[in-house]
């Protein structure tokens, strides 16, 4: 250890150095296991294991048509990571709990495998390193089409399973409006997961999705074509380009305000576009104003990693960007910004979403 000039060096405790090194290497292990989870999802291995009981690599190979030796190494790694249960005779099992997190994308609120996209290429790391030098981040389009796909699969299950049956009925008078026929805009609509769920449930209403990402809008158009929905219109525009007159009954901003370079402009656009009896639903990350209060979050390091690599990067991708980042739109900030824009009613909701809080905002 280098000592201060003129001061004797203090010997390092090998045990403490070893523990620190183990902590650092645990993040490298997480990086590698993350890739293995992506492969398990991509190759349909979790779905093949779902409900099958303990399987050997050969039995899994017969189910999937994949190479048994490769499967054996993958299975052992998954057991080492405590993702699969190991049984005598080199048999491996995905439990019902594991299935809810890794296999059941349609019915489980806890599905997470879709979040494990392949690692970004060197171009992404190069772009982020340059952002540290210049202060200018990467827009979601510059992150490539995989960013839109990853976001869709990461946020999709909760949106599909909770938005219509649980969240909409909790917002005062909104469900009746949607059933009768309302004008709705999803700002930052991404791949259109929320739009699809709402348009299916409320065919008399008219839905519009706005997103500045070309990749996201292209994917949303593909999803709407596949779903055969005729009551959805998509716009490759930012949320600051909403109709200039009050014509909207319902506005959604789901997990996106903290990504916006100029959220204040978008809030002003929403205020101009929403009717006096309209409803604005905000969904954003659970966070507290102070860093120390957030330390209780067991996934806090991941949240800040997301912020540097995606959310804050997007929020600083234009000159003068606000740079809120993943944890920057906490309840205090959300209420202050909405009231400063002219909204008078701000009602927080906790729908037991482990990652997000919801705010019902009205003029």
> What structural class results from the helix and strand content?
alpha/beta
Identify the CATH architecture of the largest domain: 3-Layer(aba) Sandwich
CATH topology grouping of the largest domain:
Rossmann fold
Helix content: 40-55%
The profile of the biggest β sheet is:
7 strands, mixed
Regarding CATH, which class of the largest domain?
Alpha Beta
Range of strand content: 5-15%
- Rounded to the nearest angstrom, the radius of gyration is 23 Å
- What is the succession of H and E elements? HHHHEEHHHHEHEHEEHEHHHEE
Integer count of domains: 2
Name the CATH superfamily assignment of the largest domain: Vaccinia Virus protein VP39
> Biggest sheet: strands side by side, in what order?
5-4-3-6-7-9-8
Number of strands: 9
The dominant shape is: globular
List low-pLDDT spans: none
| N-to-C span | 60 Å
Question: What is the typical, i.e. mean, pLDDT?
Answer: 91
SS field, number of helical segments: 14
């Amino acid at each position: 250890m280098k000592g201060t000039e003129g001061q004797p060096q203090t010997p390092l405790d090998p045990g403490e150095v070893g523990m620190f090194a183990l902590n650092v290497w645990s993040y490298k292990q997480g990086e590698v296991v993350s890739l293995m989870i992506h492969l398990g999802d991509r190759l349909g291995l979790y779905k093949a294991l779902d409900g099958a009981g303990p399987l050997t690599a050969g039995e899994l190979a017969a189910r999937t048509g994949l190479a048994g030796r490769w499967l054996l190494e993958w299975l052992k790694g998954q057991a080492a990571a405590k993702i699969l249960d190991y049984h005598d005779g080199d048999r491996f099992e995905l439990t019902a709990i594991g299935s809810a997190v890794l296999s059941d994308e349609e019915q489980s609120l806890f599905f997470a495998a879709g979040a494990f996209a392949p690692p970004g290429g060197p171009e992404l790391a190069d772009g982020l390193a340059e952002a540290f030098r210049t202060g200018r981040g990467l827009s979601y389009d510059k992150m490539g089409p995989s960013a839109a796909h990853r976001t869709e699969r990461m946020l999709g299950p909760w949106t599909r399973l909770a938005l219509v049956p649980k969240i909409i009925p909790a917002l005062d008078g909104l469900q009746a409006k949607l059933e009768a026929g309302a004008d709705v805009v999803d700002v930052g609509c991404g791949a259109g997961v929320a739009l699809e769920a709402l348009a299916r449930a409320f065919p008399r209403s008219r839905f519009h999705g706005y997103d500045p990402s070309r990749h996201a809008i292209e994917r949303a158009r593909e999803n709407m074509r596949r779903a055969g929905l005729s009551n959805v219109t998509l716009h490759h525009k930012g949320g600051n380009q909403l109709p200039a007159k009050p014509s909207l009954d319902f506005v959604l901003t789901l997990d996106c305000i903290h990504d916006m370079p100029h959220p204040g402009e978008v809030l002003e656009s929403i205020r101009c576009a929403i009717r006096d009896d309209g409803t604005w639903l905000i969904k954003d990350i659970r966070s507290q104003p102070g860093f120390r209060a957030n330390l209780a979050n067991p996934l806090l390091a991941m949240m800040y990693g997301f912020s540097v690599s995606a959310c804050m990067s997007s929020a600083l991708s234009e000159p003068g960007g606000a740079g809120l980042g993943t944890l920057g739109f906490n309840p205090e900030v959300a209420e202050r910004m909405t009231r400063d824009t002219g909204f008078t009613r701000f009602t927080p909701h906790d729908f037991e979403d482990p990652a997000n809080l919801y705010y019902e905002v009205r003029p």
